[in-house]
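To the team - adenosine-5'-diphosphate complex, inputs and output below.
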Amino acid sequence: MTQNNQYIMALDQGTTSSRAIIFDRNGKIVGISQKDFKQHFPKPGWVEHDPKEIWDSQSAVMIEVMTQQDIHPNQLAAIGITNQRETTVLWERSSGKPIYPAIVWQDRRTANFCNQLKEQAGLSEKINDKTGLIIDAYFSATKIKWILDHVEGAREKAEKGEICFGTIDTWLIWKLTGGEEHLTDMTNASRTMIFNIHEKKWDDELLQLFDIPKAILPEVKSCSEVYCQTAGDILNDKIPIAGIAGDQQAALFGQMCTEPGMAKTTYGTGCFLVMNTGTQPVKSNNQLLTTVAWQIGEEVNYALEGSVFIGGAAIQWLRDGIEFFGHAKESEKLAMQLEDNEGVYFVPALTGLGAPHWDQNARGAFFGITRGTSIAHMTRAALEAIAYQVCDVLKAMEKDSGAKTIEMRVDGGASANNFLMQFQSDILQCNIKRPKITETTALGAAYLAGLAVGYWESVEEIQQLWETDKTFGPQMDNSKVEHYLHFWHKAVDRAKNWIEE
Ligand code: ADP
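Output:
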């Protein structure tokens, strides 16, 4: 048994900031420290990070939060790591020096190469069968190939085993252990497009296709086990590193969506949906991604994943672009002024439409405007649109998995909006739960690490800790739901295929 003054520290290495959060035995936050770091855009469509800056910011917040809370290294039972996924770093094994900046998941430099791959007969299907992914520049494989092709001498060194590849979890563990450990977990591996999610190993055929030498790859571990300890000089003590998961998977675990049919949605700039599908991977017919949710012990859980491009960003646009209001939260009051949408719909296809509509040429549009239409109508339409889009993705997940959603758990900035959450529950006709602790990503990493060292005894024990802030239950008549969805889909159809190329 661990003592009462023990804590778990989660390192949450995100796309724009590094954070360290300390949790206590009740899963409550004891302290948070956060540092932003620089985004580099060297050419249109390129996005890079400096791996050294990622490490410097991450180690700084780690020390800062402990100092602030006066927590000593020997009070940390374990460290868990969660990270921006797919972002790719290559470094020299002997010196630990990166051979190129980190290529960030958003980077599109390999998009043309991906388009060429898609044209090869049967290749999209093969890659989807093995990895659960759709060929895209997001995933690490083409980023690794790009670095090996463009940095002089890199490929030769890689073939001799003198180069290491890692996603950000791997890079942090390398740094935390003073270059002793080169490993990753199955969730991060499942986003590289070279990992076979059925055989649970790096895929030789795909490695050949992307021309990636096996010698650069990290060892793939589960999400919850003592992998190693921090090097003595990092925190002046050796602390077990015992949990790893990519950000979306960590959030699914932090939301304790541990049963098949449980889903979580993060309402941020975009909306990110992940549904637990149990121990069998489910293939999507709606271009959703199939991915590893987590591995604990020998058991692997899988998930379906889909996202909506414009979620909270619709409200941001009304606030900053159209200047309807000064604060995003005012949207709730405006929407609640109305009993009904009175026929006004908004399709937020500001950058095209993602899953399950997939139309790059769609553009945003309001429909049903009359002389009586006010700011309240348009704001309500934007909030409703967030809910409709999430509904469309969730229905696609249900179709793919054959499971009805038992419950959806929510987090992210826009989940604070009570109108949106109630409307979401009505449209989905399912319960929505908003937790007390919305730092679910970090919490998931903490849970995974704590489980591995016996800080928490079992998933069941953690389920007891998970507390609801508010539950939203469906209150709307079926006929009304159908009416709303009918007009929403009519609006989507009219917004599609707007741009002519
Ligand atoms: P990200 O991590 O993507 O930056 P956050 O989780 O911080 O996003 O959420 C911010 C987004 O949520 C913004 O797009 C903002 O417009 C929206 N948002 C924040 N609060 C509310 C609210 N009360 N109602 C509706 N939208 C909101």
